[in-house]
Structure to design on (395 residues):
């Protein structure tokens, strides 16, 4: 029976780790020559990654802390857990929205600094509360940039609270579009959304095209006194431009999950310490999802939710399977088939999927595969990795 070793770089929920069968998996923080790595926030860019690693699983959505491009060249899929923490982030977004709408942060600070001495405490409370009068959410407009798992949930709750919702997402998937409430109005540009919204919340991944998506030029078109929420990634917003907009009172509040020395203590800034996914439920959901994905890949070659590889699945109709990661170039399948035919192997089933410059192939054959065949496939120019997955490792 094939056994696997999994290295954990952060504390991973036991609800997920228990899904690795103890008889076949060794899991821990001091594992040598791991077959897979599980990580949350640990920075993997500055660490050597063993050549034995076949998969990396991020128990969360973002993968900026993982050298994805390097892993792609090595034929190593990087898995994440999109949507597993969506409810936790959604709830935090609305906590922040209410903090802003009701001016709760300055109100709390005011009361904390009143002091309890003196007979006029209650009078001072009553006198001071006037400056913290807020607004109610019904009929206010919420602009949502990014309508994926989190953005869709935010839209749904906002509408149930009586808000008007306008959304912008040129990359929206068909599934995400179907999940959206029908009353969400589509914006044709970010500028259109910003002009229409009293509250704007960001839910986009960190990509070159989204860096400083909200900059000085776009902040200038927002409604005077608007509120900006960023629970996506810190660099999606240009901090310098936000601080200038706050100082000029064009922006009333900036609420985010990404504190920095530049933001600390600035008026109008509410920066939380990375709490978006910090719930027991979210950590469990992320761990369970990513463990299942890594297991399926190690044992069957199945790929789901990899950020650098195509999704691929093929029911086992034979006990003898080969999983091949390769460059997406012409005649690759022909060369793989030829190598198997020369060895007298009959291909029972084959699936090939590609994503950009990377392709992945699953091949089931009708008889056992000897190591020279695996070596001959590995020697094909453009093949990144080859694994033999006999059925003894399944289940």
């Amino acid at each position: 029976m094939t056994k696997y070793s999994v290295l954990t770089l952060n504390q991973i929920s036991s609800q997920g780790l228990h899904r690795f069968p103890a008889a076949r998996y060794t899991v821990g923080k001091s594992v040598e020559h791991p077959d897979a790595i599980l990580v949350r926030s640990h920075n993997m860019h500055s660490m050597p990654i063993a050549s034995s690693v076949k998969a990396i699983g991020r128990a969360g959505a973002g993968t900026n802390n993982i050298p994805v491009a390097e892993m792609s060249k090595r034929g190593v899929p990087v898995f994440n857990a999109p949507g597993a923490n969506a409810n936790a982030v959604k709830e935090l977004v609305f906590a922040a929205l209410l903090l802003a709408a009701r001016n709760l942060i300055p109100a709390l600070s005011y009361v904390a600094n009143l002091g309890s001495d003196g007979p006029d405490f209650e009078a001072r409370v009553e006198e001071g509360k006037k400056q913290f009068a807020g607004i109610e959410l019904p009929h206010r407009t919420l602009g949502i940039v990014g309508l994926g798992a989190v953005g869709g949930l935010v839209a749904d709750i906002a509408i149930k609270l009586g808000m008007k919702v306008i959304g912008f997402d040129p990359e929206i998937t068909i599934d995400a579009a179907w999940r959206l409430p029908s009353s969400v109005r589509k914006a044709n540009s970010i500028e259109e959304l910003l002009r229409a919204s009293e509250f704007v919340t960001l839910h986009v991944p960190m990509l070159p095209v989204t860096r400083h998506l909200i900059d000085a030029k776009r902040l200038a078109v927002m409604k005077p006194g608007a509120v900006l929420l960023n629970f996506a990634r810190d660099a999606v917003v240009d901090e310098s431009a936000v601080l200038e907009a706050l100082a000029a009172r064009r922006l009333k509040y900036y609420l985010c999950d990404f504190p920095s020395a530049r933001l600390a203590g600035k008026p109008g800034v509410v920066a939380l310490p990375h709490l978006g996914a910090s719930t027991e439920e979210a950590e469990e959901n992320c761990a369970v999802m990513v463990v299942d994905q890594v297991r399926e890949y190690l044992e069957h070659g199945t790929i789901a939710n990899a950020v650098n590889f195509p999704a691929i699945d093929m029911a086992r109709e034979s006990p003898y399977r080969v999983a091949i990661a390769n460059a997406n170039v012409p005649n690759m399948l022909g060369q793989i088939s030829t190598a198997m035919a020369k060895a007298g192997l009959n291909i029972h089933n084959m699936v090939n999927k590609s994503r950009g410059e990377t392709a992945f192939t699953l091949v089931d054959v009708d008889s056992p595969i000897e190591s020279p065949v695996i070596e001959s496939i590995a020697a094909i120019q453009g093949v990144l990795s080859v694994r033999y997955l006999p059925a003894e490792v399944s289940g």
Summary: The mean pLDDT is 94. Residues 101 and 136 are 7 Å apart (CA to CA).
